[in-house]
Amino acid sequence: MQEDHVKLLLAEIGRITAALERLAGPAPAVNDWDAADVFVWAPARLQVQPVKRPNRIDIELIRGVEHVRDILVDNTVRFARGLPANNVLLWGARGMGKSSLVKSVHALAAKETEARLKLVEVHREDIATLPALLDILKEVPFPVILFCDDLSFDHDDTSYKSLKAALDGGVEGRPDNVLLYATSNRRHLLPRNMIENEQSTAINPSEAVEEKVSLSDRFGLWLGFYKCSQAEYIEMIDGYASHFGLDLPQEQLHAEALEWATTRGSRSGRVAWQYVQDLAGRLGKSLAK
Q1: At what angle do helices 98-113 and 66-80 cross, to 10 degrees?
Q2: DSSP string spanning the chain?
Q3: What is the pLDDT of residue 241?
Q4: Is the N or C terminus of the chain more exposed, i.e. has fewer CB atoms within 10 Å?
Q5: pLDDT digits (tens, 9 = 90+) for 172-182
Q6: CA torsion, points 214, 219, 223, 227, in degrees to nearest 10?
Q7: Cα 56 → chain centroid
Q8: pLDDT > 70: what percent of the chain?
Q9: How far apart are CA 98 and CA 93, in angstroms?
Q10: CB 116 within 8 A of CB 142
């Protein structure tokens, strides 16, 4: 009888322990920061996963955005050296190299400063978990850039509040070793109808609009990317062709590249790269360097 009582008690203790573990959530995983320079945040495991072969290109191949490139390089190098730097919002035209520039600048700054500068990508759907990630990163003894690509928020999406808290740092303050770089097609991240809806239901409409627009204001640097001219597009094509040794008469190269852009209705770095991939395939050339 006494043995049955003990068994029941042990079983109850086991159930209570399991319930407490579920409430506490997953224990932080051990992160191997030496495994790579680029990582992806996996919030389900509270872990950053190393990316052994990051998808990035040589910074010299990113053309038509030299002004913003130099600003981003300067900001990133200062941060890697432990000097004050700003969060950055890269916004504007699609396909003009916003995300490519972030990854290339990270590699350049890490090499130039010899700092253990890390890049951690945070997927758009994981923005709400930023506080948990910052809690991990504040203990890391080197600089970390958080990177969120194609950032925007839809109506009724409240995760932008987690982003605001991460940028401001809340009571504890954003860790000195962390910056946030984000790319977006929108300058203000939030759609106009979302701002207008907030305005119509607020006690003070002007304060509601200010609350929404102020999200972008929390980025110290706004770097604008605009559609490229035909001359800039051709410069991109020539740069790729020279770098990868794609031998084609210049007149034919330019004519094909312009026709390719016309069929897609736009000129951009992405369209130039897509043409170069097609050309390399036709020439039997590899784009691996």
Answers
A1: 40
A2: -HHHHHHHHHHHHHHHHHHHHHHH-PPPPPP-TTS-SEEEEEGGGTEEEE-SS-----GGG--S-HHHHHHHHHHHHHHHTT-----EEEEESTTSSHHHHHHHHHHHHHHHH----EEEE--GGGGGGHHHHHHHHTT-SS-EEEEE-S----TT--THHHHHHHHH-TTT---TTEEEEEEES-SSSS-HHHHHHHHHHSSSHHHHHHHHHHHHHTSSEEEEE-PPPHHHHHHHHHHHHHHHT----HHHHHHHHHHHHHHHT---HHHHHHHHHHHHHHHT-----
A3: 94
A4: N
A5: 667 899 999 99
A6: -50
A7: 13
A8: 75
A9: 9
A10: yes
Angle subtended by helix axes 230-244 and 269-283, to nearest 10: 40
Record the pTM. Answer: 0.79
* DSSP-assigned states of every residue in 30-57: PP-TTS-SEEEEEGGGTEEEE-SS----
Task: Bin 158: left if φ > 0, else alpha if -120 < ψ < 50, else beta.
Answer: alpha
Q: Which residues contact 107 (CB under 8 A, 6 or more apart)?
A: 37, 54, 56, 59
User: What is the residue whose two structure tokens read 């910074």?
Assistant: 59
CA-CA distance, 145 to 138, in Å (whole number)? Answer: 12
The label of the residue with tokens 């897609």 reads 264
73 class by beta-carbon count within 10 Å (0-12 exposed, 13-18 middle, 19+ buried): middle
When mean pLDDT is compared across 159-168, 206-215, 280-289, the lowest value belongs to 206-215
pLDDT (tens digit per residue) in 126-157:
988 988 999 999 999 999 999 999 887 766 66
Residue type at 241?
Answer: A
Rounded to a whole number of angstroms, the distance between the first and last alpha carbons of the chain is 75
In the predicted model, what is the mean pLDDT of residues 82-107?
93
Q: In whole angstroms, what is the distance from residue 102 CA to residue 138 CA? A: 22
Strand partners, 144: 118, 178
